[in-house]
Structure prediction request, 191 residues.
Amino acid sequence: MNKQTDIKGRLQLTLLALVFFGPLILATWLYFGGSDLQPSGRTNNGELLQPVVALADALPDSPLLQRLKGQWLLVYTNDGPCDAACDNALYTLRQSRLMLGSDMDRLLRLFLHGETAPDTVKIDKEYAGTIVIYDSGLSSLLLSNTPVGVQTGGYYLVDPLGNLVMYFQPDIDPAAMVDDISHLLELSRIG
Prediction:
């Protein structure tokens, strides 16, 4: 063997090793080197509810269960009279559903009111399609499952199987809420 063939063979072996081990070495360096290229991860705009509560198990006689039709449900609860804040929340419910575009039929809206019945004529006119019910047991369950340290009076997301999934604070931007809901709808094989 001549010297030139020997050098050419070693160069080929080195290049072949770089092809296989180069990506591994680069990935290790990026991961442990504190590089700014590390992914930041996904953050939710709402709070995931843990543990998951199955509404059918917790409230088997709830009128809500009769309304579930294999769709996602966005719930707003208000125990008092429907004032300006309540009206704004109903508007947010409607707009959030409309912002889903082609997926809007996968989401129902529910207004869970207190003992004082709201103006259903106004709701039917301005927020058509919003389900309006009174269920003190469901109100209590939702309140008890609101994450600690967040403002109450927000929105709850229920999956098609009747599980409480997520809580959104009352002052959330509807686009941020729709971002989370769209992501869940995209990943969901149900509803």
